[in-house]
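Quick one:
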Amino acid sequence: MKRSRTDALISLVIVLAAAAIAQTLVACQQSKVSRNKTANKEQQTNENPMKQMMQSMMSGVVTPGIKPDELPDPNSAGAELVAHYCAQCHNLPNPVMHAATEWPGIAERMFRRESMMAHMSGMGMMGQGGMMGGRGMMGGAGMMNIKAPTPEEQNTILSYLKKHALTSVTASAIPAPHTQGALLFAATCSRCHALPNPKTHTAAEWPGVVAQMKGFMQSMGKPVMTGSEEQKITVYLERNAKAH
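Output:
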């Protein structure tokens, strides 16, 4: 129920933003500035506000993000499509943000929002062929130049995300599940994503990973683990990490 309300709110904000942007573009068209200068100004307007708005709305969902060359198998078709489409509205997500079982639902919502924004360009402010001369609110380019992946591209993106997703485990299946370290690990890490398998990283890697997750929690407005909790979780993960 909570997720459906969030989706509805985001959809409403997108529509309201489209209306506001359309009014700005109409004002630009009515100005006495030359056509070339107006086009350049519109292009500058289209480049950043949508991503800023969406990133702000999703600040509690999406982490600070990574660079395209930091994606797993960065030269693959899946990585290139993720970098192209997913970074249109927010920071580039790392596939290990979610488990393979979580990505289908998340990706479907993202595809739906991209499709909605992309198709807004064909309707105009007063219906098809309306105020904007039939080219739509964004002059035929899509809302803030947002483009939606084709069904084939969607399949490629989803397959890529699932292939490189977080290796998860249930709380009851982790080593020594009733110890203090295990309980803190399960309660803390499950606030943002599925519970990662302790054997995902080596003992040498876990301290850096835990510290990074703490930073993500802070940036996303999540309850942040204390220094004592961080230490206990790290020790637990080091003891149950993969050998090499």
